[in-house]
Amino acid sequence: MAAANKIDQGYKALGQYDYFKAKKCFKKTKLAVTPFSVDHQAGPRKYIFDHLFIPNLDSLRRWRSLIKEWTGTTVYKLKGYI
Questions:
Q1: Does 1 have pLDDT greater than 70?
Q2: Is residue 4 assigned to a domain?
Q3: What is the DSSP letter of 80?
Q4: Taking a C-beta distance cutoff of 8 angstroms, is the pair 62, 41 a contact?
Q5: Which domain holds residue 20?
Q6: Distance CA 12, CA 18 (A)
Q7: Is 14 left (phi over 0), alpha (psi -120 to 50) or beta?
Q8: pLDDT in tens, 45-55
Q9: Residue 73 falls within a domain, yes or no?
Q10: DSSP-assigned states of every residue in 2-58
């Protein structure tokens, strides 16, 4: 009966920024999951001067999210979650 309640493996749909922390947390708890990223942020590479060298506001928003994730990952490491 106890074996019926045990979870051996599973699937977890993850956002791009949650992927690293969630994967590490599951690994630490020895829960086998197959992560699947659902919100890819990158698009096709455009070799146009404006696209490559002139910053836009969307890029600043993405940097803000990235810095927030770096901070969260550092806190998770300090608290021992990963």
A1: no
A2: no
A3: T
A4: yes
A5: 9-79
A6: 11
A7: beta
A8: 888 888 788 87
A9: yes
A10: HHHH---EEEEEE-TTTHHHHHHHHHHTT-EEEEEE-----------HHHHHS--HH
Q: How many residues does the chain have?
A: 82
Higher per-residue confidence, 79 vs 43: 79
What pTM value is reported for the model?
0.57
Tell whether 70 is covered by a domain.
yes
Q: In this predicted structure, what is the pLDDT of residue 44?
A: 79
For residue 2, being part of any structural domain is answered with no
Q: Which two tokens mark 50?
A: 């404006």
Hey, what amino acid is at 66? L
Cβ-proximal residues to 7 (8 Å cutoff; 6+ apart), any chain: 31
Number of domains making up the chain? 1
Six token digits for residue 3? 């074996």
